[in-house]
């Protein structure tokens, strides 16, 4: 997967990489969690070096959920090193575009394309990909920097592979971390 040609103003959107996805307190960490952190950090560094804006999406679960506001699993995973000027947009459903403030922020960037990574592949990443396509945005997914958990019928690896195929069929540009960041 070669690096796609991206508009200079295509922001990086980091979806739901929250403490609860990594800490193992309420459920197991997402598949390949340590490497997802390292690849995400590499892509964030690439974005910052290239002048691409970075935004974080945070899922706000209902009361009693490990990802509910102010629960220990709720914050963006600190190991990602979110900068003070990088906004966080909350959502309570799968599609990040459900938050009008996120759409307004993208419009303020005059963004015609986005770069996406995060969790969970089969829920919030997939829904946000569809939301971006529905808005006419070009979409690039970092194919090895989104993850999920095993489900009753598929391993996390199978879910990721299947969704990468579905993303490609939908016209999404897929790129590996290495191809995107170089090296």
If you had to describe this structure to a student in words, what would you say it looks like?
This protein has helices spanning 33-49, 100-108, 121-134, 156-169, 177-181, and strands spanning 12-15, 54-59, 88-91, 113-119, 138-147, 173-175. By secondary structure, it is of the alpha/beta class. A six-stranded parallel sheet has the order 3-2-1-4-5-6, sandwiched between helices. Helix 4 links the parallel strand 5 and strand 6. Helix 3 packs parallel to helix 4. The longest helix is centred in the N-terminal third of the chain and has 17 residues, at 33-49. It is globular.
Enumerate how many helices there are, as a single number.
Answer: 5
Low-confidence stretches: none
CATH topology: Rossmann fold
Overall CATH class: Alpha Beta
Radius of gyration: 15 Å
Mean of all residue-level pLDDT scores:
95
- The overall number of domains is 1
DSSP strand count: 6
The H-level CATH homologous superfamily, spelled out, is Isochorismatase-like
Overall shape: globular
How much helix is in the residues?
Answer: 25-40%
Main beta sheet:
6 strands, parallel
SS-based structural class?
alpha/beta
Which strand-content bin applies to the residues? Answer: 15-25%
Give the end-to-end Cα distance, rounded to a whole number of Å. 14 Å
Order of neighbouring strands in the sheet with most strands: 3-2-1-4-5-6
């Amino acid at each position: 997967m070669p690096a796609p040609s991206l508009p200079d103003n295509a922001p990086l959107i980091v979806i739901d990489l929250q403490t609860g996805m990594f800490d193992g307190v309420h459920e197991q960490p997402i598949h390949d969690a340590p490497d997802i952190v390292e690849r995400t950090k590499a892509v964030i560094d690439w974005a910052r070096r290239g002048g691409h804006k970075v935004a974080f999406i945070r899922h706000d679960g209902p009361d009693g959920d490990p990802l509910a506001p102010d629960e220990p699993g709720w914050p963006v995973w600190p190991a990602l090193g979110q900068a003070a000027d990088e906004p966080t947009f909350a959502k309570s459903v799968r599609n990040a575009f459900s938050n009008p403030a996120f759409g307004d922020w993208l419009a303020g960037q005059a963004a015609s394309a986005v770069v996406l990574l995060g969790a969970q592949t089969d829920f919030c990443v997939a829904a946000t990909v569809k939301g971006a396509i529905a808005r006419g945005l070009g979409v690039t997914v970092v194919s090895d920097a989104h993850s999920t958990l095993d489900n009753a019928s598929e391993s996390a690896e199978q879910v990721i592979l299947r969704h990468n195929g579905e993303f490609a069929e939908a016209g999404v540009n897929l790129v590996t971390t290495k191809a995107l960041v170089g090296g």
